[in-house]
From TrEMBL:
Annotated source species: Psychrobacillus psychrotolerans
Residue ranges constituting the PilZ domain according to the UniProt record: 39-112
Pfam families reported in the protein's UniProt record: PilZ
Highest taxon, organism lineage: Bacteria
A molecular-function term among this protein's GO annotations: cyclic-di-GMP binding
Name used for this protein in its record: PilZ domain-containing protein
């Protein structure tokens, strides 16, 4: 099997990570942006380019395409904008796939925070 060093990983949390989100609504003619109130969600897994989240709330991703996410993987709070890609109904809510819209700096921040978090998890297991 060929290993591609540049291929990203996906980190699945043992216990989903708490996060908040606000939906982004583009106003007519892209003149302005309107944000919804904050909602609670859980991040199930994450990679530098995307994540899977769970929310009890239904989001019509056909009408609201973008979301602002705020979460902390280890110590530094992270705020990113994402685009909904898919949704699935679950027993107690909905799962959503989100493609993160970021740059190399934000991708590196996610990677570094995940490394620190994982190191702490491994220390606790010893």
């Amino acid at each position: 099997m060929k290993y591609n060093r540049n291929e990203y990983f996906r980190y699945t949390f043992e216990e989903p990570c708490d996060a908040t989100f606000r939906l982004i609504k583009q106003n007519e003619g892209n003149v302005g942006v309107e944000l919804s109130n904050k909602g609670a969600c859980k991040i199930i897994d994450i990679s530098p380019n995307g994540l899977k989240l769970f929310s009890e709330l239904f989001i019509s991703i056909d009408q609201l395409h973008h979301v602002e996410l705020n979460f902390t993987l280890d110590t530094n709070p992270i705020s990113m904008v994402g685009e909904f890609v898919w949704s699935h109904r679950k027993a107690w809510g909905h799962e959503y796939g989100v493609k993160l819209v970021g740059d190399n700096e934000s991708e590196q921040m996610i990677i570094e925070e995940l490394k620190k978090r994982r190191r702490k998890e491994m220390e606790l297991k010893k």
